[in-house]
Every structure is written in structure tokens, then in C-alpha cells.
Amino acid sequence: MISKVILIKGKHQRILSGHPWVYGNQIETVQGIVEPGEIVEVYDGKKFFLGKGYYNEKSQIRIRLLTRQREEEINKDFFKRRITSCWNYRKQLGYIENYRLVFGEADFLPALVIDKFGDLFVIQTLSLGMDRWKTTIATVLEELFSPKGIYERNDVPVRKLEGLTEQKNFLSAPFPTKFEINEDGVKLFVDVENGQKTGFFLDQKENRKALQFISEGANILDCFCYTGSFALFAAKFGARHVLGLDVSESAVAQAKENALLNNFENICEFQTANAFDELPQWVKEKKIFDVIILDPPAFTKNRSGIEAASRGYKEINLRAMKLIRKGGFLVTFSCSHFMEPGVFFEMISQAASNAGKTIRQVAYLSQSKDHPIVWNIEETSYLKGFVLQVL
Ligand code: SAH
Fold first, then answer.
1. Distance of CA 177 from the midpoint of ligand 1 (Å)
2. How many of the other CB atoms lie within 10 Å of CB of 156?
3. Is 90 exceeded by the pLDDT of residue 357?
4. Which is it for the CA torsion 347, 349, 353, 358, positive or negative?
5. Distance (Å) from CA 196 to ligand 1 centroid
6. Which domains does the chain have, with CATH numbers?
7. What residue's CA is closest to ligand 1, atom 13?
8. Does any ligand 1 atom lie closer than 6 A to the CB of residue 230?
9. Which pLDDT tens digit goes with each residue over 296-331?
10. Does residue 354 carry a pLDDT above 90?
């Protein structure tokens, strides 16, 4: 018998409006003994059915709903239907080779991430309830895509909140985990075992194209360059010189290799450096760039860190604005969900006024379409950015 969870009266509005999470403090009663990861039925305080999802006593997010239909069984077919629908959505939007196939909550598969690089797949199961289905999901991928390989990148600290360990494994026969991809005409090595996150930032796909028309003949700085994706695109779009900076030595080594792969070694130069040290130093030295790209990591992973994060973002944006020639461009991002658009706009606006610059918005940027945003599931929205002309 499937256990029933009854919510406290009036504590179901968020769920009714589309959010899949049930917190411990929303729950009135749990009927029976529920094993970690088990599927339960959720009812509101008036005993109306809300949905079915997996349960974890250890997590603050006690339940994540998988379906709103009582008759829908959670089994291999369920995952096959959902993943097929994820695939169809991506196909419709023109994604063929490299893309995020499953983006967790935004694809109604909470805590599941699957990235596809050609015929290789990388999986993250970030909650205990989803982790239990990992082998089933791998089987579904085998059936749908006949992949060359599947790799698990579960070395993610958030798993601890669910009582899970961090781990990396093959979920298929082993394969070379560093390989070449072709992203809109640029070649890059992706290392799904040792790279950051799942190896490559697919969420910036459309934003790399924002460098077209502003790169021709330009002297460009790509701060937080990782393996150089923006730098390489700038070179493709005609940059005269691109300097890429990253604090990670392995990222810089990879970026250099990527430059060679595209014969951009005379245009793209990469250095291991801390942007917080270099930018102020260069302001003192009165260095000038035509375009600066700022794509820092998430400076905060929770609400309480917003103020400190905002200071960090402001610091680099202010310095960058000072380093850009009049009429040049700043391409700036924040990938922290907690840095909400309003806070981000305000921070940029303050940075501009402190730098004594007028800024003109050229484009507002967001995450790629394979990372869709579900309104009412606010956590699905995280990447925002601007192309700004600095006057
Ligand atoms: N623009 C990249 C992704 C950037 S991810 C792309 O499109 O692929 C953020 C990067 O910032 C990481 O590679 C990380 O190593 C780097 N980083 C973090 N702190 C840094 C710092 N203080 N200075 C320079 N790089 C930093």
C-alpha cells in the first residue's frame, strides 16, 4: 500500500500553483512507515489529492512530486515517457548534438540532470529519491539513444543534504572521458570526469553567439574563461586578440589546448590568475579593452550570502567598466539563482555610477532553451546577463 501524506490546512498553495517541493513544515501527518526514497501520495488539508512523489525524511525538502495524476505509476515506463518528452522538446527547438536533455524540476523530473554530448551522456541524481532510479534511468537512455557511454557526475556537495555520498562512476562500459565536441563550428575538448560540473557549460550556448558583431578586430578580455568557450567564439567572430583568465590551472591548460585545436593560438592567450587581483591592478596600469566578458561562478548558493555576493559582482563589474574604452562592450553574467534579476540590475547600475560610466543595454541574456524556466518554480531560473555598451 502506498503511504499517504496529509499537509497542514492552507499549506498547499505553492504546490497547487506548480511547485513540486513539499517541506517538512508543511506536513500534518504521514501515514505508516515510509522508507527513504519511497513514493508517497500527497493530499491537502481537506484530503484532496495533490500528487505523487518521492519521500526523504533526511531532507528539508521532504517530498518532490513526480506526477499530479493519481493513476500514473512511477516505474521505468514513467521515466521513459518523461525523458522522451524532454528529447522531443529539445528536438523541436533545434538541439541535435550537445544539450541538456533533462533539466530537473523544469522537466518535471526533480533533482535529475542529464547532459548529452553526441552519443555520450552525463547524469546527476541530486536527491535520494531520484538516486534510487539511477540504473532505471541509465537503462532508459540505453533503450532510447543506444549511447556509447553514460557517466555519473555525482560529486556534488548538495547530495549531502539528502544523506547521499559524492561519487563519480561509469554507468556503462568505460569510455575515454575526455573527448572533442563541435559547438556551432568551434571545437572543444570536454572532460566529463575531471571538468567542472558535467564538463561543459551548455547553458551559455546562445550567449556565446552574442559576441558576433562586437568581436571583429577587437581586443577582448574573457575573465573566468574556464576552457575558453567565449574566448574561442570571440576569435571565430574576428577578434584581434583575446586574453582569457581563470584561477584554475587545469581549466587554463584545457583552454590552451582548445585554442590549438581551432588554430586560434595566435589570437587567444590564456593565463592562470585571480580576477579579483588582476582587474584592480590593470585599472591602475590604465589597460584598455574593447570588450570584456565576465562569467563568474555563483558567488552565493543561498539567500543569506546575497549581500557579500553582490559586493563581489559589483567589484568586478565596476573594474571591468573602467577597463573598457568608450563605446566598448561589457558582457556580464550571474549564474546564481539567489542573485535575482532585480538585485543584479541594481548592482550593475551602482557599478556604472561608481565607475562614472553611462551604460546602454544592448541585450538581456538568459539561460539556453534546453534549460527552460518554469514560472512558479523559481529555482529553475538562474542565469542572467547583459551585453552593455559602456559610454
Ligand atoms: N565562461 C565559462 C564558464 C565559467 S565558470 C564557459 O563558458 O565555459 C566560472 C569559472 O570561474 C571557473 O572556471 C572557475 O575556475 C573560475 N574562477 C572562479 N573564481 C575565480 C577568480 N577569482 N578569478 C578567476 N577565475 C575564477
1. 21
2. 15
3. yes
4. positive
5. 10
6. 3-67 (2.30.130.10), 76-175 (3.30.750.80), 179-390 (3.40.50.150)
7. 226
8. yes
9. 999 988 889 999 999 999 999 999 999 999 999 999
10. yes
